[in-house]
Amino acid sequence: MATATVAILSPGEMGAGIARLLRAYNFRIITSNSGRSSYTTDRAAACHIEFVSSDVDLINQADIILSVVPPSESLPTARRVGYAYTYVARGNKPPLYFIDLNATSPGLAERIEEVFARPGIGGTGVRFVDGAILGGPPEFVQTPENPGGAWRKPRIVVSGPERLVGEAGQRLEEALGLKWVGDRVGQASGLKMCFASLTKGLNGLAIQSFTTAANLSLLPELKEEISAYFPPLLDFLEKSVPATPPKAYRCVREMEEIADTHSQTGFSRAVFSGIAEVYRGVAQDDELGKERFDRRSRGTTVEDFAECIREGLSRKEEENNRANAAAAGKEWMQQPPGRAVERMLVD
Ligand SMILES: NC(=O)c1ccc[n+]([C@@H]2O[C@H](COP(=O)([O-])OP(=O)(O)OC[C@H]3O[C@@H](n4cnc5c(N)ncnc54)[C@H](OP(=O)(O)O)[C@@H]3O)[C@@H](O)[C@H]2O)c1
């Protein structure tokens, strides 16, 4: 018998991992696949997640909703649930919890909280919890030391005035290993922003550094120097840089959220806005932009990753040069004949 129902919007790489973990803890998992790609729908089916026909159905059946979407979709997802909630009569059921687990700035977390504070939209019936995930998706790992296996879980931090009460909430806390970091909405998100500044932020810097070193034919030498001074840093970057392509698209907004977070302290947005552009370049790269978690072919080593970016940048430069030359030629052709001859003599 399932102990409680958790809705996951949506089972992407992280949401699917959480679904598998919660099923192992005897939760029933539901989702709504309306508007979702076949990629997400197939993955949800593979994780034995049940589909419901509408958001109203989802709210009717769920004890807890987890929002696990790209950061750009956090607020729209909360609004969508808040809107559907107005069509639901939950009767005597325990209160519904909505936990946002996305990489958002504290400011955006507060805006999401407001969605559920407005009577008539989320009403006062939905209890909002700010949350964030540090680390990769939950995974069941078997090792020679532990052949029976154990769950490797990310660290999940939560904050806000609404504690998870009731059986479903207590069991969720235990299954996910939730860690409360404060009584204010925005604190869990803020912790994630500061943490990701040093992980994904550093990863963005490494992408530039490795690519420029490759362009100078110095990538092996750069790796040797990092290894001589900070061996664990090279280990980290050799794993994190090749893991970037499938998630680069959502890292763009994550860097912008980080820029927002630091700007609230008084820092310029420039550093992390710049790193957002590095991730945009990866997401839009002809080769790396096609990579998916379950289908990797390019950029699986820092060498190949740097090569893809370097080739992409040089193709872009050639295209720009051609476009500029074409524009200059057009301008030249459009000049009155006398002026064109004058310019030709001067040039
Ligand atoms: N993966 C990780 O290692 C990791 C680690 C820490 C934190 N997180 C956080 O977890 C969240 C999700 O990351 P992820 O890795 O699972 O991303 P992902 O693999 O790209 O999956 C994103 C999921 O969200 C769905 N989605 C997109 N737009 C949506 C919308 N408007 N409404 C509802 N669902 C929508 C996608 O569906 P479609 O297929 O239809 O686009 C997909 O199922 C992010 O906020 C991220 O910061 C992830």
Automatic annotation (TrEMBL):
Which InterPro entries does this one have? 6-PGluconate_DH-like_C_sf, 6PGD_dom2, NAD(P)-bd_dom_sf, Pgluconate_DH_NAD-bd_C
Residue ranges occupied by any Phosphogluconate dehydrogenase NAD-binding putative C-terminal domain in the UniProt entry: 213-281
Question: Region Disordered: start and end of each range?
Answer: 313-347
Which Pfam families does the UniProt entry name for this protein? DUF1932
Q: What is this protein called?
A: 6-phosphogluconate dehydrogenase C-terminal domain-like protein
Q: What is the lineage of its organism?
A: Eukaryota, Fungi, Dikarya, Ascomycota, Pezizomycotina
